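Changelog-adjacent note: as of this version, every example in the card shows the full chain rather than a window. The one below runs 77 residues end to end.
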Amino acid sequence: MEYLLSILPIVVVGITLASLSIAQARSHRAEIHRLEAKMDARFEALSAEIASLRERMAHLEGLMDGLREAITGRKAA
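Full-length structure tokens:
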């Protein structure tokens, strides 16, 4: 009987630590999911900005080609 009474606090501490570890792991998992969603939104915004810049750059290249043709009187290669 004394043996069981001496083991009981150890078991209770073990269960308490396990419960805290599980709760902390869930909290970390939720935080990771929140950060992933935030990063996904940032990457989508960055991708849209790059696409916009690509279109603007293509437009400027077209204007430069037209200007080159107007100045030199010949088409670019």
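Structural remarks: DSSP finds one helix and no strands in the chain.
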